[in-house]
Write a structure and sequence with these properties.
By secondary structure, this protein is an alpha+beta fold. It is built from twelve helices and 27 strands. Helix content is 22%, strand content 33%. The longest helix has 20 residues, at 2-21.
Length: 584
């Protein structure tokens, strides 16, 4: 009898565990007739069998159709086990009058929309446009999935992240944390498409969303579900984990760095490795090191850095984020993290004074004394560049006593520069990234197209950040701003924006949508290249009038009417209107 009761208990626990890990189980994707040759077949099978997505017709999934926003809400609510964690009937009643009925949410989606509103995955403003703009864009899908994992934009707690997409300026800053999170869990490829773009405004097909949802669900099951397991069903839980292969597939598809096994288990108490710096990623506290193998190949390995990491570069105490690609390093690992790194720069910049120039053994020898008092000798090679007063020169233009800057690569003399050291720079901001483990980093694009990267001094004060003539902060800086930088020891100590012409005068536009309480207008117009363009216009401080210049208000602007002209400033693709003339 006792054994019988125990058996019943085990079976019951297994059923409970299974129901917690597999939503609406019981679907059979074998009935779908249009996915056999689709690239996302396995992802489609996974989400269909788990009930996370439904077919369009009995046997058709229609993977190439655009996924609808209402369907995305249903899928996300199922992934989050809405029926188990919330009283959906009460939520529907809560939002029935003001949202669900008002905006004609279809019956099948009412519970999901109410749940997503309650969990702050969407807002009432979002629901307002679901019917008019039913297809999900890539940036919207990223936002909704990110919010399901409680990713929120909070510049005070979570400074802007670093993304490497070429079209980064098209991704609103408040959405970048969500994109960054999905990159980390394998939902999005951080390298972008073949051209390096994210393409935030492209619509998402059902096949693409199936992949995004499948990988997201695997992460959600693993890290966000609170399942209490009975000891008798531990084996069942282990089996469920074994069956959950989505994340492994995603890692294989999106891994940036090949990993081999030759260096053994790095999770030992302490390990010493030698290699070369391939990349430093202070935003995530990572260093990529190339490690030479016995067969002559190089293994690339990503390591996290310890909180109390110590670093020396060229025998001087420094910060790990100043390591450069190609620097030779010896690192000490403790429990898999870099606790100490000793580096020799591949490229070293040294200020020095010429002591003597002589010829020995048919070589031209430069003897210098560095600013630290060290005496060094270098031989000029055919690869050595000599610069004096900003122009190419020869060694004959240099004399003893001159102050110079020399650049060496593993002690080979690359450049001698008798210029005055620059302590300023100017360019357009490409990106600004923030990290908890390193100073903020700014990348600017100079007028000649060259991109330069600088770290911003940790102790920079707000009075040294001037945006449009006013004291500001780092968080007020934006891509595409033209800035003058003041530098000390290659670190930015002052940033001043340079006023650039962003004036716009749009003629003949059509109002597509308007949100009165935000003074936000969506317009369409034909630009100078004869392309149909869509823009958001903020009319908060705009003067509004008709063609007779009679004063009007924003309430006089209606959906579908023509605007004779809009004058204002454009910032990051958004127009801040100063004057709006209605075509009447």
């Amino acid at each position: 009898m006792n054994n019988f009761k125990k058996m019943i208990a085990v079976i019951t626990a297994v059923l409970l565990l299974t129901s917690a890990c597999v939503v609406f189980a019981g679907n059979d994707a074998s009935i779908l007739t249009d996915i056999n040759n689709n690239w996302a077949k396995q992802h489609i099978v996974n989400v269909y069998n788990k009930g996370l997505m439904d077919s369009i017709e009995d046997t058709l999934f229609k993977p190439n159709d655009n996924v609808k926003k209402y369907d995305v809400m249903v899928s996300i609510s199922r992934m989050m086990r809405a029926d188990k964690v919330s009283n959906l009937t009460a939520l529907v009643e809560k939002y029935k009058t003001e949202v669900l009925d008002k905006y004609k949410v279809p019956t099948y989606a009412k519970e999901a929309v109410a749940f997503c509103l309650e969990k702050q995955i969407i807002t009432v403003y979002d629901v307002q446009w679901f019917s008019d703009f039913p297809n999900v864009q890539k940036i919207e899908a990223s936002l909704y999935l990110g919010r399901a994992f409680e990713i929120q934009y909070d510049p005070a707690k979570n400074p802007p992240v670093a993304l490497s997409f070429k079209d980064l300026s098209e991704i609103p800053i408040m959405y970048r944390s969500h994109v960054d999170f999905l990159i980390k869990i394998g939902v999005i490829d951080g390298k972008g498409d073949a051209n390096g773009n994210f393409n935030p405004r492209t619509t998402v097909t059902r096949a693409v969303f199936a992949k995004m949802l499948d990988i997201s669900n695997a992460c959600y099951e693993k890290d966000y579900l609170d399942i209490e397991e009975e000891s008798e069903v531990q084996d069942a839980a282990d089996q469920a984990d074994d069956n959950d292969t989505v994340n492994n597939d995603a890692n294989e598809d999106t891994a940036d760095v090949p990993v081999q096994d030759e260096i053994g288990d790095i999770n030992q108490d302490e390990t010493i490795l030698e290699g070369y710096i391939e990349e430093v990623i202070p935003e995530y506290g990572n260093i990529v090191i190339g490690i030479k193998q016995t067969n002559g190949t190089t293994l690339s390995k990503v390591f996290g850095v310890a909180k109390d990491i110590t670093c020396t570069i060229d025998e001087a105490q420094s910060f790990y984020w100043r390591l450069k690609k190609g620097d030779s390093v010896t690192v000490a690992l403790i429990n898999g993290e870099i606790a100490n790194v000793a580096a020799e720069s591949k490229i070293q910049k040294t200020k020095a004074t010429i002591k003597d120039i002589r010829i020995a053994d048919e070589k031209i020898i430069f003897e210098v004394q560095t600013e630290k008092g060290e005496k060094k000798s270098f031989a000029l090679t055919n690869e050595t560049t000599v610069v004096k007063d900003g122009k190419e020169a020869t060694y004959r233009d240099l004399k003893a006593g001159m102050s110079i800057a020399i650049i060496t690569s593993y002690q080979e003399l690359i450049e001698i520069n008798a210029d005055v050291t620059k302590n300023s720079d100017r360019g357009v901001i490409e990106s600004i990234s923030f990290s908890r483990t390193a100073p903020a980093k700014i990348i600017i694009k100079r007028e000649d197209g060259q991109k330069i990267e600088y770290y911003i001094n940790n102790n920079i004060k707000d009075e040294n950040i001037i945006v449009e003539g006013e004291i500001s902060s780092l968080y007020d800086l934006r891509p595409n701003m033209l800035v003058d930088l003041t530098l000390e020891n290659d670190e930015v100590t002052k940033i001043v924006t340079v006023v650039s012409d962003t004036r716009v005068n749009i003629i003949s536009a059509t109002v597509k949508e308007i949100v009165y309480d935000k003074a936000l207008i969506l317009i369409e117009y034909i630009d100078s290249s004869n392309k149909l363009v869509t823009k958001h216009v903020y009319a908060t401080d705009a003067k509004i009038a008709n063609k007779r210049l009679d004063a009007l208000t924003i309430q006089d602007i209606k959906k579908g009417i023509k605007l004779f002209s809009i004058i204002g400033k454009e910032e990051l693709g958004i127009i801040m209107a100063e004057t709006i003339i209605i075509d009447k």
